[in-house]
Amino acid sequence: MRTKKINQLLSVIIIMATMLSCTALKGTQTGKNGSYTFEINRTKSVNDPVIYGSITEVDPNRKLKIGVVKVDLKHIYHADADGNFTFKVKPGKHRFRGLNINYKQVETKYLNTFKGDSIKLVFKLNQDDTPLY
Fold first, then answer.
1. What does CATH list as the number for 23-125?
2. Which of 45, 64, 127, 129 would be 116's cystine partner, CB 3.0–4.6 Å?
């Protein structure tokens, strides 16, 4: 009987350790320029953080083909023809900005990234109706 309880306790400890080794953080921010959602999956990998996701139009909800993601106002990454992007960053505190011609830009809050992170960002941009004259 005692062996059975010890085995059950060990099973619970193993399950809890597995759950703690991979955590997920999620969030959504909405503003006048559009919105973004993020999901951070943390693992014990030693690889640099991977950022992936898409740039879409708020209404209709379609992907934008000429999207750009700017990291810390320094590095620029282009979305593909389907509006999707993937790139790596160094671990640290970063801000991401989703951009597209004729759309308002959306900027994230600072996100702390760590080795092993996989971060999904989805930008939803509102059209910019400001006249060009």
1. 2.60.40.1120
2. 45
